[in-house]
Amino acid sequence: DELIGREDDFQKINGRLWAVTSLAVLIAILIGAPIASATSLSFPIELSAGIALLAVPVAFSMHEPKVAREGHEPYTMMVLNGVREAWRQPALRYMVGFSAIIFAATFTPLIFVQPYLHEHGVGTGDLGFWQAPVRAFGIVSALGAYRFVSRVGQAGALLALPIALAVCSFALAGFDSVVVFAAFLPMGMVAGMQNPVIATYVNRRIPSERRATMLSVQSVVGSMLLAVSEPVGGLIADQFGLRAVFLTFGMMVATFGAITYVLWLRADTAAEASAEGLLREPAGEPVGIS
Predict the structure, then answer these.
(1) What is the pLDDT of residues 38-47, one digit of tens each?
(2) CATH 1.20.1250.20 for the 12-47+76-271 domain, yes or no
């Protein structure tokens, strides 16, 4: 209830949420790798399932704030209506596509961190320590996302995401050395920053009664693309090796990320110009009484 009326703080609060999530992943990685080394690879997975069950009573204890509602809308219908609404607004339409591309180009390469380290002689017990800096960079970037946007602007912050991912992916594809593992660090930063930066834009463009719908649409579209990109990445890795995976996703984000960014920028600029024109439109001449 305390968050109602604090829309301007969304980016800061969302950044903290992603930082806490990244911290949980960091702790799990640091604990899980030694456990897997001492027992088996399946035991940490079973342990994770048991820990996840502890979240069930927490989920049931949650409740939505008491606000006036016009009526309940089924989730499927809500998502479909959100897709229609996004499609009618070019800037929002391209932003949802841009978000999905960034999401897939970030988290698909990151699932290959462990195979990459194994290829370069890092043992199972040490995987957590090697991956910890990547997650730590994500925590820092999530907490500082709102400061980054305030310094470089919304457009600049969005442009930085595909550039960072493309450069890092091409570095991992071009050089076969454990030193190039450092390229995963900026990827970790994008992983922590991408949601606070993009969701804040969506949050500001949508009326309060439809924000949850559009954020759900953004999440669903990103998850759908990720559900395709991860198996495809695995097939590429099996057939052509890890460097081919990084090259593929580097090319994907450099091409489609750039295209959707330019389309979004043009649409957003046009929408803002149209809004400013409506605000500056002079009022009609007063009608005189004879």
Answers:
(1) 787 777 777 8
(2) yes
